[in-house]
Amino acid sequence: MSVEPVNCTIKSPVPLQIGDAVSDLSRPGVYITDIILSEPVNIQEISFKNYYTAYLTVRVQRREEGRAKWVTCLKNHPLMDNPHTEAGSHDYFSIYRQQMSSVPDNVMAVRLISRQPSSEWLHFSIEEINIYPCVKEDSERDVPVWLSTLTPVEAPVDLKGLPDPETVSSSIQQMWALTEIMQANQNAASIGRFDVDGSYDVKLLSYT
User: Alpha-carbon distance 163 to 145, whole Å?
Assistant: First the structure.
């Protein structure tokens, strides 16, 4: 079952720049993007497309004991192999709750902090942002179709009234031993046909 992204408002990135933004012509190395959720959500995944962002930090605002609190869930997660090269600069990424150091439950807002220390790129950002909620594990809709069509396990066979397996095994071994003895006696009897009253009949012996 596909999960739809949550309804949210993505604000325009705000540059974080040291010094006077008017007089300082150097480009900012950090952008902050705030995402406001329409209602508190337990986050399962944050997906996005990169555009020359080298490192990403994820902070969430959770509702705890009736008040809002900001916590860092992921810090300086690398999106590019090297900030000065193209590798990873246009890739799609997904950040899952299992990767986060703090549990992203009852989240009211998400803050993405993009960082690019290299001066090679004039612009960098995070695009196509989607946030997906956790799916209820006890929901009947989440049960796969193949699992619901499995044949129920049959009840074990009632073994009451049957002889003890060890006793049966012992009896079979005794029968096998008696069979071996009977075969051995039968071979001895066939050899004894040459014996007449305790001595051999010369006529019945063959010479080679």
Answer: 43
On whether the CB atoms of residues 63 and 40 are closer than 8 A, the answer is yes
Distance CA 81, CA 180 (A): 77
Beta-carbon contacts of 91 under 8 Å, excluding residues fewer than 6 positions away, are: 49, 50, 79
pLDDT digit string (tens) for 109-133?
999 999 999 988 989 999 999 999 9
> How much is the pTM?
0.62
Instruction: List, in sequence order, every beta strand (DSSP E) within 97-155.
Output: 107-115, 125-133
Rounded to whole angstroms, the Cα distance separating 169 from 65 reads 69
pLDDT in tens, 80-91: 999 999 999 999
Q: Which of 112, 90, 89 is nearest to 43 (CA)?
A: 112
The tokens describing 10, both together, are 């993505």
Beta-carbon contacts of residue 10 (< 8 Å; ≥ 6 apart): 33, 34, 35, 129
For residue 96, the surrounding DSSP H or E stretch is strand 92-96
